[in-house]
Amino acid sequence: MSSIVPFESDPIRPAEPRCLTISVDGERIEGLRGQSIAGILLAQGRTAWRTTVAGRERGVFCGIGVCFDCVGTVNGESDVRLCLRRARDGDTVETQDDSEEDTR
Amino acid sequence: MRTDVVIVGAGIIGAACAREAARAGLSVTVVDRGAAASATSARGEGNLLVSDKAPGPELDLALLAADHWPGLAAELADELGGAFPDIEYQRKGGVVVATTPEGAEPLRAFARRQTELGVEAADLSVPEALELEPHLDPAVAAAVHYPQDAQVQPVIATEALLASARRAGAKILPHSEVVGPVRDRNGRLGGVRTAAEAISAGAVLVAAGPWSGEVARTLGADLPVRPRRGMVLVTSRMRQRVFHKVYDADYFGATQSSDEGLQTSSVIESTPGGTVLIGSSRQQIGFDDRLRVEVLARIARKALRLFPFLETTSAIRAYGGFRPYVPDHLPVIGEDHRDPGLWYATGHEGAGIGLAGVTGALIGAQLTGAEPALDPRPFQLSRPSLAAHLSPGGPT
Amino acid sequence: MKHVLVIGAGPAGLTAAVAAADAGARVTVLDSGTGPGGQYWRHLPPERPSRREARLHHGWSEFERLRERTERDGSIDVVTEAQAWAIETTGGATVHALIGPSDAAGREALALEADSLVFATGAHDRTLPFPGWNLPGVFSAGAAQALAKGERIAVGRRAVVAGAGPFLLPVAQSLTATGSTVLGVYEAARTPALAKGWLPRPWRLLSSARKGGELAGYLAHHLRHRVPYRLGRAVVEARGDGRVEEAVIARLDADWSPIPGTELTVAADAVCVSHGFTPRLELPIAAGCEIGPDRFVTVDDDQRTSVDGVWAAGEITGIGGVDAALAEGRVAGHLAAGGDRSAIGPARRRRRASADFARRIEAAHGVRPGWTAWMREDTVVCRCEEVAYGALLGTAAATEQGSLRSVKLTTRAGLGICQARMCGRTVEELTGADPSRAADTSDRRPLAAPVRLGDLAGLSSKDDPQKGEH
Ligand SMILES: Cc1cc2nc3c(=O)[nH]c(=O)nc-3n(C[C@H](O)[C@H](O)[C@H](O)COP(=O)(O)OP(=O)(O)OC[C@H]3O[C@@H](n4cnc5c(N)ncnc54)[C@H](O)[C@@H]3O)c2cc1C
Ligand SMILES: Cc1cc2nc3c(=O)[nH]c(=O)nc-3n(C[C@H](O)[C@H](O)[C@H](O)COP(=O)(O)OP(=O)(O)OC[C@H]3O[C@@H](n4cnc5c(N)ncnc54)[C@H](O)[C@@H]3O)c2cc1C
Fold first, then answer.
1. Three-state SS string across B112-179, please?
2. Contact call for residues C121 and C278 (beta carbons, < 8 A)
3. Which end of chain A has fewer CB atoms at under 10 Å, N or C?
4. Sequence-separated (6 or more) residues with CB below 8 Å from residue A84
5. Residue C300: Cβ-neighbour burial (10 angstroms; 0-12, 13-18, 19+)
6. How far is the CA of B326 from the centre of ligand 1 (A)?
7. Is the pLDDT of residue B264 over 90?
8. Alpha-carbon distance C464 to C453, whole Å?
9. DSSP string across C308-349
10. Would the CB atoms of B314 and C450 count as touching at under 8 Å?
11. How far apart are CA C398 and CA B81, in angstroms?
């Protein structure tokens, strides 16, 4: 499971981080200011959020905006690379589901 | 090497001609300077339209093509079997709209003239149009439904025609550029030379798309085929929200125009891959393939006029090609009246995918002396509308 | 005063910017990221300051010096969150960029023309496909690295690092430094290949002093943390129900073909794999720059590309590590600003030494063809369109095609949203395409990034290039 290094025990001695809240598929999730949206999800232990046409789950793969595996809908705009997009307090994120069975 | 017919060009036109000629029992060799199915036929869209054709020989050809495609698609599927990808033939129909009040009546009048010639076209009220295309901008002024409009995946279609031709005995030679003619003592054309070999043939068929003019010149003939640049935008995958081929009626103006400046019209269609294709522009700028952002911007602006929801969708790719263009907007299909043995199947401009099958059939019939399905004269190089575009001294 | 436009604010781009300013130019730097640093100096955002961040990096003081200089110097303007998405060459080269949060609609459009252009867009890792590589929990090694340095995220608790190249070592180090247990680093190359690449001229390795030191540091680290470093091995499968639960590791022969019977299964929740790097070539290609047979931007001793007024530096010209990027950036920036060649003798010498380093990496760790033996019919090759290996080869055989364009369009491999960035090189290799032919290269992308149609529509002719603005 993915996780974030707790700031209290991080040897690089971070200052106390400030928090923000985003909503992911309607659920409120806390993150740190400066985190990418993918970073917030990974810090929660979520490694997958997108569903492909074949119904497979995907999350981060390349981590630098090249593979587009991690895309999600942010504030109504689809196909945003969540590994690149810095979270802003109040962002609304919806996961994308391209699977054929899904008839949303 | 000896062959009955050598075909220059393994695009969809060359492929369709090769298939027909080989199935008629001729020995066929197709040469292409690049890979097969990789030039214009891989750089456009796959609209098979009757809706955009004005009454005249091209409409006759397009109507024949509309009848011909379902059978062709079924034959190819049967012949090539499940291991071969599906050519994605879909008779999904077209919806043509006028976005301005001034455009409404000309669109309806155009459709009326087409119906007299056998085109199926139905006037739609705005609510009816929205029933067919729920995401269309309700501000459209008029709409016409053309159920005969269809689509196909052009590269798979080209490959399928080539595979079928191969099964009938045709040979395909990629990476073989035609560099000159083979002529006998009397100057009669008897084949072509590639960098590697001479191929003697009873008939040389030029199906080299927008390069047909150059190939003809290499062979010693002049042929007024020129490139007309077109660009297409592709969106990211989305849930299907466009159900027909939807375009604005300005498109007629763009296809029929000889204006050298930039014209754009937006034909919008979704593909089985989940993307939406938006195209395309028309511009006479020679073989200049440099990206022009303004062209893309104009294509996007016109698309948004039809489907406002596209505003926040992403274009993930832009590509383009060169339509093979003849000054009187008709393809050239048949033998050169000035140079026996030299044949053409080219100049289909923005309709070469749609017209490939019937072009192949016309060529096949003429090569074997069979009865063609349609009067071939309007497509011959000797037609009056091209006289002014051929050099007066005839071929050199 | 010359205006130099640099694309990319990694080690190469930042050095180029400073060198250009030193030589008297006004400089604009565009980078799509939220801060400067590129991949090498990917760091925590300003909202998360840390007193000892330098610990996560090599050469951090160099970065701080470059960053400070670019911030302080009024003649250097670093524009971050600036995605260059197209280059037009119908007039002079015009670079089109969108400025604002990644992939957001309604970003500010910018069209720039400058006297000189320096490309420093870097590279991304290349991962060869293997069964299960599309499971969540499989990452590129670069992802593990980027998340560790830029977010303090550990991609898993028990991680396997695999692939090829010296890059695997810093990745393993970063993983342990974020609290992951690294079960092992599995390098595909075997001792003879390494000997061929590294050992014939060990003194050269040392002459590139920092690189030598860095590698020594990594090896010491591996000993200290008892992370096994195994040669001639690969992850040949990742397994799990909906996400990675185990990795299958096998020994490879010299061709990278797995040796049957040597498979070993380990429980892991993260598999981090990279087999080298792919340069980001779309912008140089759009500008008309020649790409060499090695698939990097062709440059001369002065980092000059084949196009007048256009330079290139860093990993788009060869995978030579950070020292090469720094030396090349300095040469490119200085000369792009019209500086005199005599002033950069040492940088030009360093760049030559690093080119040798790049050759040795390729000789030792370059992809070998035997890897396809670990593929199965249903192994996904194109992640976006989920095109399977069997279907890809079957269609290529049915169409008798060896050309990429047709294979792409008949199978959809490479047509998805990443536009073949992930699978392009692999599909080329599998279909026997000849990338020197225009229809056979996966590197051409006239749109270097997705653009919202509304943003595209909003560009009007009045947005003519703002000469000298920004
Ligand atoms: C943007 C765009 C959109 C389009 N949309 C549609 C559409 O929706 N519907 C439709 O029906 N049509 C459409 N078209 C038109 C259609 O693509 C063309 O009419 C058709 O592909 C032409 O096929 P072809 O076989 O004649 O040419 P090509 O596919 O170009 O084949 C010609 C071949 O000749 C070869 N060649 C050239 N010179 C030589 C030589 N010296 N020796 C050997 N070989 C040579 C070339 O390498 C090439 O492979 C569109 C075109 C464009 C550009
Ligand atoms: C994820 C990752 C992590 C790495 N970590 C290490 C490491 O820890 N140690 C190591 O030795 N090597 C590492 N490398 C190798 C690394 O590429 C080089 O060491 C070094 O960073 C190369 O420097 P550069 O300046 O050439 O390119 P980069 O550092 O890659 O910089 C290129 C910059 O260009 C920007 N860019 C690219 N395209 C565009 C565009 N279209 N518009 C705007 N901006 C653009 C990018 O955002 C990036 O910031 C890593 C590589 C990757 C992919």
1. HHHHHCCCCCEEECHHHHHHHCCCCCCCCCEEEEECCCEECCHHHHHHHHHHHHHHCCCEEECCCCEE
2. no
3. C
4. A36, A64, A65, C32, C33, C34, C102, C103
5. exposed
6. 13
7. no
8. 19
9. TTEEE-GGGG---HHHHHHHHHHHHHHHHTT--GGGGHHHHH
10. yes
11. 10
Q: Which of B31, B45, B219 has most ligand 1 atoms within 8 Å of CB, for mutation? A: B45
A19-98 CATH pick, 3.10.20.440, 1.10.260.40, 3.90.180.10, 3.40.50.2300 = 3.10.20.440
> Could you tell me the distance, in angstroms and rounded to a whole number, from the CA of residue C9 to the centre of ligand 2?
9
CB of B353 sitting under 6 A from ligand 1: yes
Contact A78 B274 (CB under 8 A): no
> Is B258 buried (19+), middle (13-18) or exposed (0-12) by CB count in 10 A?
exposed
Question: Can you tell me the ipTM of this complex?
Answer: 0.96
CATH number for the domain whose boundaries are C127-275: 3.50.50.60
Given this chain, do its domains C3-124+278-362 and C127-275 carry the same CATH topology?
yes
B355 token code pair: 């017209």
Distance C255 CA to ligand 2 centre (A): 29
**Class of CATH domain C3-124+278-362:** alpha beta
Extents of the domains making up chain C: 3-124+278-362, 127-275, 376-440
* SS3 of residue C72 by DSSP: helix
Residue of B211, B228, B287, B329 to test ligand 1 pocket, by largest number of atoms within 8 Å of CB = B211
Contact C364, C189 (CB under 8 A): yes
* CA–CA dist B159, B180 (Å, integer): 27
Look at residue A4 in the predicted model and tell me its pLDDT. Answer: 97
Q: Give the model's confidence band at B243: pLDDT under 50 very low, under 70 low, under 90 confident, else very high.
A: very high
Q: Which two tokens stand for residue B342?
A: 């030299």
Do C52 and A43 count as a contact with CB atoms less than 8 A apart? no
- Whole-number pLDDT of residue B260: 61
